[in-house]
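Help needed: design a sequence for this.
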């Protein structure tokens, strides 16, 4: 495992064109799920995350093939907002990245998420956050969604459930498993609290 644990670095979108896989059809799709605010109907963050997984399974052409356990995690960066509930869904099917992003944003909106309410609040508390972590080994710097997710490898709350639901997945730019990335991250940043609910 030691050879699998990289130093933690940011991906900057500079991509070796030989590593770019332009095929997204039927690739495993990994989506991070998170919530730390109740829904408009009073639903708990855990219930909101469960509903999001069901909604993703109902998207045309996609099927939910795996769902991690749910984790309670501290906000990153640290703040006084409530802890998050996080998990990762493994979907399969054929969908263009931009279409998937639009579908996930619609699920977020139906759950009560309002984008742009607080300008610049990238790490603000939220009813629901659905982020495409990866679509197979697809690498793209633009347009949105950037793939793989540019900060997933820096977030224990993504890596722990990702390692559980997709143990054979390897980061297409860092060439490392989710478990290896998680080990390196927790060694560098042990304050990232992650526990199974």
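Sure. Designed sequence:
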């Amino acid at each position: 495992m030691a050879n699998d644990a990289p130093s933690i670095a940011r991906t900057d979108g500079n991509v070796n064109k030989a590593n770019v896989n332009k095929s997204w059809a039927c690739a495993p799709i990994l989506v991070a799920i998170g919530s730390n605010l109740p829904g408009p109907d009073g639903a708990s963050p855990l219930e909101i995350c469960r509903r999001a997984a069901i909604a993703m399974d109902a998207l045309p052409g996609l099927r939910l093939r795996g769902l991690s356990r749910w984790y309670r995690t501290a906000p990153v960066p640290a703040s006084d907002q409530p802890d998050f509930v996080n998990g990762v869904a493994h979907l399969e099917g054929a969908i263009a990245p931009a279409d998937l992003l639009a579908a996930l944003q619609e699920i977020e909106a139906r759950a009560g998420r309002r984008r742009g309410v607080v300008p610049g609040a990238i790490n603000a508390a939220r009813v629901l956050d659905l982020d495409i972590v990866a679509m197979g080994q697809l690498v793209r710097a633009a347009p949105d969604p950037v793939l793989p997710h540019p900060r997933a490898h820096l977030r224990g709350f993504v890596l722990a459930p990702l390692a559980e639901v997709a143990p054979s997945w390897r980061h297409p730019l860092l060439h490392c498993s989710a478990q290896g990335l998680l080990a390196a991250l927790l060694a560098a940043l042990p304050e990232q609290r992650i526990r199974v609910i």
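The mean pLDDT is 84.
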